[in-house]
Amino acid sequence: MQDRAIIHLNVTDFAVAVERIQDSSLKRVPLIVAPARAARALVYDMSEEAYRDGVRKGMRLNLARKYCRQAQVVHPQPALYRRAMTALVKRVVHYTPLVEQGEEDGHLFLDVTGTHRLFGPAPDIAWRLRKQLLNDLGLDPVWSLASNKLVSKVASRIVRPFGEYIVGSGEEHSFLAPLPLAMLPGLKPEEMKILADFNLQRIGQLAKLSRQQLHVPFQKRSTYLYDASRGRDRTAVLPGRTGNARIVREHVFEEDTGTYSEIQSVLTMLVHETGRDLRNKKMLGRRIGVSLTYSDGKNIIRQATRKNGCDNDFLLRTLAFTALGRAWQRRVRIRRCILICDRLVPRPQQQTLFVMQTRREQQQEKIICAMDTVCNRFGNGTIYLG
Predict the structure, then answer these.
(1) What is the pLDDT of residues 57-71, one digit of tens each?
(2) Which of 77, 193, 318, 327 is deepest in the core (most CB within 10 A)?
(3) Helices 78-92 + 122-137 axis angle, to 10
């Protein structure tokens, strides 16, 4: 059986890289991407210079300014990052249709197994891609090559912000063994705490434990930890967004708010973006989750489901408002609102023989179609539901 060849491309600090392409003067200063006028804004992304000074994603902006006083702050532009990600994927799919992407974060997995007859050995493909992306888009990605997604992801973490790394087939265990446990993808904070209590610090130390030994503290997660610590990963590279599992849209309020109607307005905007994404992908969402982050840092998430799924903005908004009502539990101002649409299923291709929609639903479909036409012509944010 032929060994798999998985390339992981990572444009480090993707939002910063895109901002610097748009405005070359930003290359000369440390950069923080965050809503600068918000009272308690959180860091969306930061440059390598700011990272070295201690700035981290999700950190409060006023604290980040203290760590990196020379940093310039720019407002996030998610629509711009989505366009850049689309341009990135467009160039990559020339080499393989098996391209899995994250959420506008510059991460891509490519399965180039068996493509050597067309494009040469896998390392040549990676080098050629890096050169092409640099010339065409101005993006300079880190890349790594391994026999599976897990090892290639770890390898790209080692060489960031610039560089490349190749892990040969059969070298996965020896490559991972000396690395700290924090480098292993998928480890949860509570699992890290348990491993620290056992005085385990390296991936190789974890790999010495048997399945039975791991099962006692970790139960169902023991299988993943056993395989991952040995560099085993059978996960396939799935075309599209990671696992096609969910669509996430986020809004950070410039001023923390406690007004229910204001949050409903924001959710309506996020629902329309989510609905358009579903319709473009020809998918239906069966569950909507609303996550609220409060001023004191506490987070609450609640969900609402629809058995058959939908991509109708009006129905999605009803689900979102239901989830919001369930999450509305505290009399504390809200800093951030996240809309999560998951349990996605393909839209049926077969047309129904009989019209099952009500007159109201038919009118809604016409409205949504007209709104999509306007947004396709003039861009996202042109028109929203009232």
Answers:
(1) 888 888 899 999 999
(2) 327
(3) 140
